TrEMBL record, chain A:
<keyword id="KW-1133">Transmembrane helix</keyword>
<dbReference type="InterPro" id="IPR036942">
    <property type="entry name" value="Beta-barrel_TonB_sf"/>
</dbReference>
<dbReference type="Pfam" id="PF07715">
    <property type="entry name" value="Plug"/>
</dbReference>
<dbReference type="InterPro" id="IPR023997">
    <property type="entry name" value="TonB-dep_OMP_SusC/RagA_CS"/>
</dbReference>
<keyword id="KW-0998">Cell outer membrane</keyword>
<dbReference type="InterPro" id="IPR008969">
    <property type="entry name" value="CarboxyPept-like_regulatory"/>
</dbReference>
<dbReference type="Pfam" id="PF13715">
    <property type="entry name" value="CarbopepD_reg_2"/>
</dbReference>
<keyword id="KW-0813">Transport</keyword>
<keyword id="KW-1134">Transmembrane beta strand</keyword>
Automatic annotation (TrEMBL), chain B:
<comment type="similarity">
    <text>Belongs to the SusD family.</text>
</comment>
<dbReference type="InterPro" id="IPR012944">
    <property type="entry name" value="SusD_RagB_dom"/>
</dbReference>
<dbReference type="GO" id="GO:0009279">
    <property type="term" value="C:cell outer membrane"/>
</dbReference>
<dbReference type="InterPro" id="IPR011990">
    <property type="entry name" value="TPR-like_helical_dom_sf"/>
</dbReference>
<keyword id="KW-0998">Cell outer membrane</keyword>
<protein>
    <submittedName>
        <fullName>RagB/SusD family nutrient uptake outer membrane protein</fullName>
    </submittedName>
</protein>
<dbReference type="InterPro" id="IPR033985">
    <property type="entry name" value="SusD-like_N"/>
</dbReference>
<feature type="domain" description="RagB/SusD">
    <location>
        <begin position="318"/>
        <end position="467"/>
    </location>
</feature>
<dbReference type="Pfam" id="PF14322">
    <property type="entry name" value="SusD-like_3"/>
</dbReference>
Length: 1007, 467
């Protein structure tokens, strides 16, 4: 509707466009006409070279103060020419450098050396979404990384680029398989719903839905189904801003509760047309294996288990010890299945340039990555990014357009081999027989490589386009509109060919099957806005008002085909004897909002920022669709006060605080409807209809109240810059799929829960500039977060389904455990505290020891050094946390165990860490082992310090200023220090491939 | 020129701004209203129409066929209880869900145990939803309502009956109200039986004696009576059990014992009371897929030595309903009641849930308990005759009862857990299984209640003993 009205008034735009076109032509002759019209002011040509002290700087803007129309930019060799008069002052500015003013004073040649703007990061404009604000004047909490940090990392996922670099942002990689996902929590878990804690992602002003696009029957390789976030190409990103507190997020209203991730893509710079080409190649391997038993230890354990069980004969199916399998074989299955090397190649090319009015950037990239699993599997990703910016001659009209198109093509085994590599008996048979076929060893084992032909394949095509048009209708009154369109097409399959079965079963391709998932998502957004800015005697006022109209359609089609005449036709659904549609749906999500901001800045000293939003969402039933959110933020730059101006070492000081509300509507669409849906199953000539859900029409918004107080201090010309922030977020009216007893027929139902969850924390960042000389520069940044998550209230918890999951006063991410007390030296069985003294270990009474799986603190330490042509950048990431040790089932059965389990109880009086082995017949031992894995005994320190990233680069001295050649060496996860014994300490669900250790080398040419 | 054009623009722009504002405000409420998605029907409209109401009901059958207790897949009770008792020997690799059943080491968090529970109550919910939807409907005819409600009652009683035999005291769920069901209280097994009987009697009153169509894929009145006979038998209500079985056995126009054992399980068998239609045309039973094997050692399960050696010589069931594979030294037997392993042009075999032979054995046992020894032997001999065996030599009441139980073992092996339930109700379970099963404990007669259920619903506590 509103699109229509925009077009209706499109004439105005055409008119505008035409007029500016006229002006832009006239500018070609501008030099002449201007010099003629003001020739009496003794105009003459000024020229010179602009450099950074050693190298020339192209693209620097040189303007004359108070003469809006006379500006030029330096050419590729840093040279510029400009008409000026003796009394003029030149303003020389360039991103990343300090802006300087130079008086002309009759000089005809003025060479200018610009200083790197490292100390005045606080002058950088920070993107806050609907507006941008100078770092020093911001009232909200915004963390930021830029292309400089992103480019140093050989990663493909946007979340990976932020790991360890931002205070308050905890990111965990869930699998090392390419195309897999990451878990992100900004300032902790707010929602009891585990899938309701995603931040809002915005790319160049366009919301990017992060809701999963996978399907559990097809995304079987990953611990969680495919996320669309892999489509975002880190190479195209100029900066990522994370909005954390109420002041920054309230303007995003219902979607701001979990923070907002703003992604700004690279834009072209005016000046010489620059081509940059980068080629990288590298390799990845698993960071750390688990220490498992070897054949000797393993067989000794197995034999002892039978002795312990009082059995004298092995069962016919105990192939590992009854003589069927070679007792002397030994295979390191982890090395066999996960010991490969992932080959990584990456190519990027960028073309950018333009004039000072119109700039463009075109970049393309192509990335391939194989896996560490045996077999030919490949992840491919390619993309193109185009951006174009234009402003009119009078700077009143501005247009920015950007479009990114990315394609991913992933081909992986359908199942992660990590858990197989850990439980297989070390003397299990060879994978292949002598003729190179899969070895089934006469049907005595399930060869894990039977799944090598069972594949997970996915193709994702993703388009994100945005346009921002703005026009300054009156002085300081700007009318602006964002337009966005996204189109994501995702296709995913998992095959189950008959070759996964032992050929002896004689299963033909009639038993082959394929699951297909087609998920398409389109969205559009229009956000008309008006902003007004005025500098008055009593201060500076900024007012913004706008609206959002967004519509998103998600079409999902899940199908299953089975019974093929040949396995070669398995991807052809038409060749399937049976095709079943498992799910077919078009979900429409509509969202509408009005928002506003008033910012008042008095003498650059006292700043107050008011934001608000009224939101409506189609995800709620009639009567519950709308809600209001708002925040107030304030800052006091106390170093500008007269009484502090005398203190020379204190260069900057600011106190800021904010309070406000945000919401959360991540609950899926149509949850309030009472409906039936097709089950896809046929019976008695009917396609069945099943109830869609347990229905509840009454649920409403989840609200989140945030408070923050922070202090920012710059010492010694900001050589040391400290930020300390305290926050408290409280979410109430929790919107959850309340877990229900199976007796209700369902496992959960959408409803509001009158529970309050609180996240509090301290965030510290310190940036020090240790050296800043011509040749040697060294800066260090540290971020450190102490966070505490707490369930504040939960009326009726003890009578609720959560009564054995949560405890008041404890975090959400806890587990209740039995309290492990040691091993009974007489029976050799694990013992637990019998809290209720009933003589048995009973659930739930004895399972009450709280274990918190949240990190106590986490952070990162980054150092950036440069010496002449060398640059070194490295980041240590650390976390203090606990996790559960890996569970391979009870020791003694046909399943390998950690090497430490060799120390087991054998006879009365033994003092061992591992309980008595059993082959499965000692029910007390089996039960005790089951309890042990839910006890404090299996909790272990999983803290780590890891060299997350290291990048070394060297600029080749080519002797020419127009061409640059850089050699780059990058590493990811190269070193890990941890006490965790069972593999890599970074995981959420165990038994999946850990993050890889990656090292790459590359060359970048710029000319 | 600049100033003039500027004014025009500002007027245009202001108009645009106004237009946007007006659109914004006027569309405020309607913008976020969305229509029903194309794939969903409101619950009310489902029951305004017989074909959609029927689709809601028949979906429960496809669910029962594919998942949960009565499914013929490896996770159904035919396999799992066969392994849990002494019918099957398991050869599966570590991690296979059948293994803890075979070793009798089920834990409260066992996923099959949890699935049985959740899937069963989901089926019960669906049945209750049909009953409530039918009740509210103004469009369905009385006959349509009767048939839908009758079948839903049958499903509800059948699933509860299995649950109580596996888990002991359980809640009996009769509505879709989640507030009640989420905190449902356990009731005693006897009370569950009483409710099952009430439901079945209502179902019998509502269901027609004829089948809805040529294939016996929807339960009719006699199927409900057959279940009632089994319930009475388990409940040791001998006269009632005999009467209910007689009602089925007297329906000679519909049912007869097939003389040839090899055609008992085909689609058109006259012995079938109720069978599941396969999910696709040409597909045969899941049972054939999991039990039949072609090479040794068996991939999943084989018939236990205990069972295979118990058959009398010349028992046609051993030759017809089992088959063997040998590697030269060892021979393994697999159930071969269902013979069609592959797809066929059109489906040949359907999974049979209720068949006439069981009714003869029910009546034989019930008659023996009531002292009608002649009648009991007559019924028993019908089954023995078809198996190619001579009449029973049992004389006393107890001998006949024991003979019936033995016969049930041979006749009904690997069918929906009959052996396990028979051992339980005869009281022999501990003496028999503690000999043949190394992991057997007397508390294993009941499954553990799912851990998750205990944690959510305190009314289900305490856990069954032994877990």
């Amino acid at each position: 509707m509103n699109i229509f009205s925009f077009y209706k008034d499109g004439k105005a735009l055409y008119c505008l466009f035409f007029i500016w076109l006229c002006f832009s032509f006239s500018s070609l002759y501008a030099t002449n006409s201007i010099s003629r019209s003001i020739s009496f002011a003794q105009q003459f040509q000024v020229q010179g070279t602009i450099s950074d002290g050693s190298n020339p700087l192209p693209g620097v803007t040189i303007a004359i103060k108070s003469k809006g129309n006379s500006a030029t930019i330096s050419d590729y060799s840093g040279q510029y020419t400009l008409s000026a008069s003796p009394s003029d002052t030149l303003i020389v500015s360039f991103i990343g450098f300090k802006t300087i003013l130079v008086s002309v004073q009759n000089r005809k040649t003025i060479d200018i050396s610009l200083e790197y703007d490292t100390t005045t990061l606080k002058e950088v404009k920070v993107n806050a979404g609907y507006y941008s604000i100078k770092e020093s004047e911001r009232t909200g909490s915004i963390a930021r990384i830029t292309a400089k940090d992103i480019e140093n990392q050989p990663v493909t996922n946007v979340l990976a680029t932020m790991q360890g670099r931002m205070a308050g942002v905890s990111i965990t990689q869930t699998t090392g398989v390419p195309g897999g996902g990451f878990d992100i929590k900004i300032r902790g878990q707010n929602s009891i719903r585990s899938d309701g804690n995603n931040p809002l992602y915005i790319i160049d002003g366009v919301p990017y839905a992060s809701d999963p696009i996978g399907y559990n029957q097809t995304s079987s390789t990953f611990p969680s189904v495919t996320s669309p976030l892999n489509s975002i190409n880190p190479d195209t990103i100029e900066s990522i801003e994370i909005l954390k507190d109420a002041d920054a997020t309230s303007i995003y209203g219902s979607r701001g509760a979990n923070g907002v991730v703003l992604i700004t893509t690279k834009k072209g710079k005016g000046g010489k047309t620059v081509v940059s080409v980068k080629a990288t190649t590298g390799a990845g391997t698993v960071t750390k294996f688990m220490k498992l038993m070897g054949t000797q230890q393993y067989l000794a354990m197995r034999k002892q288990a039978f002795v312990n069980d009082g059995l004298t004969q092995y069962n016919p199916w105990d192939y590992d010890i009854n003589g069927t399998w070679d007792q002397n074989r030994e295979t390191d299955w982890q090395k066999e299945f996960l010991g490969g090397t992932s080959q990584i190649t990456d190519l990027q090319a960028t073309l950018s340039g333009g004039s000072d009015k119109t700039q463009f950037l075109l970049s393309s990239s192509y990335h391939t990555e194989s896996t560490v699993f045996p077999g030919q599997y490949m992840y491919k990703k390619g993309g193109t990014q185009l951006s174009m910016s234009h402003r009119s001659e009078d700077n009143r009209f501005k247009l920015t357009f950007s479009a990114g198109y990315n394609i991913q093509d992933n081909d992986q085994p359908a199942y992660d081999l990590t858990s197989s590599s850990r439980y297989l008996a070390p003397n299990a048979p060879a994978l292949y027989d002598t003729s190179g076929n899969l070895n089934w060893e006469n049907g005595t084992w399930q060869n894990p490589l039977r799944f090598r032909e069972a594949k997970f394949r996915s193709k994702t095509n993703d388009l994100v386009t945005s346009a921002v048009l703005s026009y300054e209708i009156l002085d300081n009154l700007v009318l602006k509109s964002n337009f966005g369109f996204t189109d994501l097409r995702h296709e995913e399959t998992r095959t189950s060919p008959s070759t996964i079965y032992n050929p002896a079963y004689q299963l033909t391709s009639a038993y082959s099957g394929i699951y297909l998932n087609n998920t398409d998502r389109q969205s559009w957004i229009v956000e008309p806005q008006v902003s007004w800015e005025k500098e008055m005697t009593f201060g500076k006022v900024n007012i913004l008002a706008g609206g959002t109209f967004q519509s998103q359609t998600t079409a999902r089609l899940y199908q299953f085909g089975s019974g093929f005449t040949s396995n070669d036709l398995i991807y052809d659904l038409a060749s399937a004897a049976t095709v079943r549609v498992l799910y077919s749906d078009d979900a429409l999500y509509k969202y509408q909002a009005f928002f506003g901001r008033i910012n008042y800045n008095l003498q650059d000293r006292y700043i107050i920022n008011l934001t608000g939003r009224r939101d409506g969402s189609s995800r709620f039933g009639p009567g519950n669709q709308f809600a209001n959110f708002g925040a107030v933020g304030a800052a006091w730059i106390f170093t500008k006060e007269r009484f502090l101006k005398e203190i020379s070492w204190l260069s900057f000081g600011k106190l800021r605080g904010s309070y406000g509300t945000t919401g959360n509507d991540q609950i899926g669409d149509y949850q309030f409807l009472d409906t039936y849906i097709s089950s896809g199953f046929n019976y008695d000539s009917n396609v069945g209809l099943q109830p869609s859900r347990l229905y509840n029409p009454d649920f409403g918004w989840e609200t989140n109240k945030k408070i923050e107080a922070a202090l920012e201090v710059g010492i010694l010309q900001d050589k040391i810059f400290l930020t300390a922030a305290w926050y408290q977020n409280r979410s109430s009216n929790q919107l959850v799929g309340i877990p229900l007893a199976g007796t209700t027929g369902f496992q959960s139902m959408q409803a509001n829960l009158d529970a309050v969850v609180q996240n509090t924390g301290f965030e510290f960042t310190v940036r020090t500039q240790n050296f800043n000389t011509q040749n040697f520069k060294w800066t260090t940044s540290l971020n450190l977060t102490f966070a505490r998550n707490k369930l504040i209230s939960f009326p009726g918890l003890s009578a609720s389904p959560y009564n054995e999951k949560y405890r008041i006063g404890e975090p959400l991410n806890i587990e209740l455990n039995y309290k492990y007390t040691g091993i009974d030296s007489q029976t050799g069985i694990y013992l637990f505290e019998d809290i209720n003294k009933d003589g048995a270990i009973s659930f739930p009474e004895d399972k009450q020891s709280v274990v918190d799986f949240n990190p106590q603190y986490f952070g990162g330490l980054q150092n950036q050094l440069s010496y002449k042509r060398w640059k070194l950048d490295f980041l240590f990431q650390f976390a203090k946390q606990e996790n559960r040790s890996y569970y391979n089932g009870f020791a003694g059965q046909m399943s390998n165990q950690p090497a430490r389990a060799a120390d087991s109880w054998i006879k009365s009086g033994d003092n061992a860490a591992q309980q008595i082995y059993t082959s499965g017949y000692n029910e007390d031992a089996v039960t005790a082992d089951y309890l042990y894995n839910q006890s404090t005994g299996s909790i272990t320190d999983a803290s780590f310090i890891r060299l997350k990233n290291i990048a070394l680069s060297y600029d080749l001295p080519l002797g020419t200023k127009s061409t640059q050649c850089q050699l780059i060496l990058q590493g990811q996860n190269l070193l890990t220090f941890t006490k965790y014994k069972d593999g890599d300490p970074e995981f959420i669900a165990s038994g999946y491939l850990p993050p890889l250790k990656i090292i790459t080398a590359g060359i970048q040419l710029t000319f | 020129m600049k100033t003039i054009s500027f004014k025009i623009i500002s007027i245009h722009q202001l108009l645009l701004f106004q237009a946007i504002t007006i659109v914004c405000l006027s569309s405020c409420d309607s913008f976020v209203e969305v229509d029903l998605p194309k794939s969903q029907l409101t619950t009310v409209s489902v029951f305004d129409n017989y074909s959609t109401a029927n689709a809601a009901l028949s979906d429960i059958y496809s669910k029962m066929r594919d998942q949960g207790l009565l499914s013929g897949t490896a996770s159904g009770v035919s396999n799992q209880l066969g392994s849990y008792a002494d019918e099957l020997t398991c050869f599966a690799s570590p991690g296979d869900p059948t293994l803890p059943f075979y070793t009798n080491t089920l834990l409260p968090a066992n996923s099959t145990i949890t699935d049985y529970w959740n899937i069963s109550y989901n089926q019960i919910y669906a049945a209750n939803a049909v009953m409530e939807g039918v009740e509210r409907s103004n469009e369905l005819t009385a006959i349509e309502k009767g048939q839908l409600k009758g079948e839903a009652l049958f499903i509800r009683s059948l699933v509860h009956f299995y649950l109580t035999n596996l888990y002991g005291d359980i809640p009996y769920i009769t509505s879709t109200n989640h507030k009640i069901n989420n905190a449902a209280e356990k009731i005693k097994v006897k009370e569950v039986y009483a409710k099952v009987i009430v439901d079945l009697e209502s179902a019998i009153a509502l269901l027609a004696p004829d089948y809805k169509n040529a294939e016996r894929i929807r339960p009719n009145q006699f199927t409900a009576k057959a279940l009632l006979a089994r319930v009475y038998l388990y409940n040791e209500s001998w006269p009632e059990a005999a009467n209910a079985a007689s009602a089925v056995l007297n329906a000679v126009n519909l049912y007869a014992i097939e003389d040839n054992p090899s055609i008992v399980f085909i689609k058109g068998s006259k012995e079938t009371l109720w069978q599941f239609q396969p999910s696709a045309s040409g597909k045969n039973t899941d049972e054939a897929g999991i039990f039949i094997f072609f090479s040794s050692p068996p991939p999943l399960v084989a018939i236990s030595n205990n069972l295979i050696t118990s058959f009398e010589t010349d028992d046609l069931r051993k030759t017809n309903w089992t088959a063997s594979i040998s590697d030269g030294t060892t021979t393994w037997y697999h159930p071969y009641k269902y013979k069609e392993f592959d797809y066929t042009a059109s489906s040949v075999e359907y999974s049979v849930i209720f068949r006439l032979a069981e009714q003869y054995l029910i009546r034989a046992e019930a008659r023996a308990h009531q002292g009608d020894l002649i009648g009991a032997k007559e019924d028993l001999n019908v089954i023995r005759k078809r198996a190619g065996l001579a009449d029973t030599e049992a004389v006393s009441g107890q001998e006949i009862i024991n003979a019936v139980l033995r016969e049930r073992r041979w006749e009904l092996f690997t069918e929906y857990g009959h052996r396990f339930f028979d051992l339980k109700r005869s009281g022999e379970i501990n003496s028999v299984l503690s000999v043949s099963k190394a992991g057997w404990n007397s508390t294993d007669v009941l499954f553990p209640l799912p851990q998750n259920e205990l944690s959510i619903n305190p009314n289900l506590r305490p856990q069954n003993s032994g877990y």
